[in-house]
Amino acid sequence: MNTLNKIYFDNAATSFPKAPGLGEYICDYINNSSVNINRGVYSKAISSEVFVFETRNLIADFFDCDKSIDYSRRVVFTPGVTYSINFFLRGYLKKGDNVIISSLEHHAVLRTVEDLKKEGIEYRIAQCDTHGDISPETFENLIDQNTKAIMVTHASNVCGTILPINEIGQICKKHNIILAVDTAQTAGSEMLSMSKNNIDFLAFSGHKGLLGIQGIGGFIISPKLDRMINPIITGGTGSLSANYDLPSFLPDRFESGTLNLPGIAGLNYSINYIKDFGLDNIKKFENELTKYFINEINSLSDVQIIGHNNVDNRTSVVSLNFLGRDNSEIAYLLDNEYNIMTRVGLHCAPIAHQSLGTLNTGTVRFSFGPFNKISEIEYCICSLKKFS
Questions:
Q1: CA dihedral in degrees (154, 157, 158, 161; nearest 10)?
Q2: In the prediction, which pLDDT does 71 show?
Q3: Of 6, 174, 222, 372, whose Cβ has the fewest other Cβ atoms within 10 Å?
Q4: pLDDT per residue as tens digits for the range 360-384
Q5: Taking CA 351 as the corner, what is the angle to CA 187 and CA 334, rounded to the nearest 5 degrees?
Q6: Which percentage of the chain shows pLDDT scores above 90?
Q7: Contact 309/298 with Cβ under 8 angstroms?
Q8: Which residues on neighbouring strands pair with residue 124, listed in sequence order?
Q9: Which of 39-43, 135-139, 374-378 shows the lowest mean pLDDT across its residues?
Q10: How far is residue 127's CA from residue 130's CA, in Å, rounded to a whole number?
Q11: 141 CB-side CA count, 13 A
């Protein structure tokens, strides 16, 4: 049991607990170091600027972005992935353009491209199968002369299926279009290289697999894309303050206003924790939890695993549909009678549920993290058997 005296299986929504010691670290930062940056020339402000610069380097290295051109400045901080995706889609696409998305996208993408239709921007959907798999050719077949980008999630937040990012990147390179990737469900558990996978825009969330706090995230932009996105938020940056126009250089062009410095400090701490723990070790452990859970679920009657019923090509997100039962009732009973926290419903991804055949029922989603235990899985399975 965790400190809430409950079992937490909702890490796809946000990780819990966070990196050990994170709360104390952020508290110390707020109490002793949390002055603003880019505004003062006193020593503490300069020290904070250096710390933020080091955090940008840390993130750029973590996602293996191209280091050939001033790479740390291409890390931009935002409140989270949704903001980052809006920066890309609204700042890059123009009237008459089209963008290709997958049928597994979160509302962060779907609602944004739907809204952009009002501005004469088209979106096309690469359809997945009932396991969440999409062939790279499905994307390529949708490309025409007006296609400017492919925007995809790295892995589904509903069924956990991982998309073929490397192959999609090769297609984008072949057709000279932009590849933008949402890593909300994979950053901190799945290795992803911007340089090797031809990724031009990578959006990341700090509070999920990266084990930081809510309210911090960002994006990394390639040199190719640098001047091709217009800022959608303007204001003070602390730089070139005599100018009425925004600075033209990164990251200032996309960072108007005051940054979430405690969140950035926490992200620095949590990513270093992950590096010390080992990304491969996290992935291996989460795979073990997921494999055990899936194997046990496969033995239960009237319970449907959505997506792959094994650990191949998936994350530690497992959605279940309880046939003949109300999934909301199952989630309620798990919480109130068995102290197991899950998420139930459509998970802000109705297009994914439509593709997976669960739009009318939703799913009960279990998502495991590095601080869960096999004993918690065992207890959960015993609890679920009582519903059969």
A1: 30
A2: 80
A3: 174
A4: 999 999 999 999 999 999 999 999 9
A5: 70
A6: 92
A7: yes
A8: 100
A9: 39-43
A10: 10
A11: 9
Q: Which of 153, 160, 157 shows the shortest CA–CA distance to 308?
A: 160
Task: Please count the other Cβ atoms lying within 10 Å of the Cβ belonging to residue 329.
Answer: 13
Cβ count near 355 (within 10 Å): 23
Q: Specify the amino acid at residue 192.
A: L
d(CA 126, CA 351): 11
Q: Is the pTM of this model over 0.85?
A: yes
C-alpha 192/C-alpha 139 separation (Å) is: 20
Query: What pLDDT score was predicted for residue 34?
Result: 87
Reduced 3-state DSSP string for 121-176: CEEEEECCCCCCCCCHHHHHCCCCCCEEEEEEECECCCCCEECCHHHHHHHHHHHC
CB within 8 A of 109, min separation 6: which ones?
Answer: 85, 89, 101, 151, 153, 182
Closest by CA position to 10, among listed 336, 361, 322, 319: 319
Q: What single-letter amino acid sits at 70?
A: D
Q: In whole angstroms, what is the distance from residue 235 CA to residue 223 CA? A: 24
Distance CA 62, CA 349 (A): 27
Q: What is d(CA 335, CA 4) in angstroms, rounded to the nearest whole number?
A: 12
Contacts of 272 (CB under 8 A, 6+ apart): 58
Among residues 14, 16, 15, 12, the alpha carbon closest in space to that of 4 is found at: 16
Distances from the Cα of 371 to the Cα of 3, 5, 9, angstroms? 12, 14, 10
Burial (CB count <10 Å: 0-12, 13-18, 19+), residue 144: exposed
- Residue 214 and residue 207 in contact, taking contact as beta carbons nearer than 8 Å: yes
Instruction: Provide the H-helix boundaries in the chain.
Output: 22-32, 43-62, 81-92, 107-116, 136-140, 165-175, 261-277, 279-297, 327-338, 350-356, 374-385
Element (H, E) at 367: strand 363-367
Alpha-carbon distances, residue 240 vs 134, 253, 370 (angstroms): 46, 11, 44
Copy the structure tokens of residue 13: 């929504």
Q: Is 157 a residue whose pLDDT tops 80?
A: yes
Q: Is the pLDDT of residue 248 over 60?
A: yes
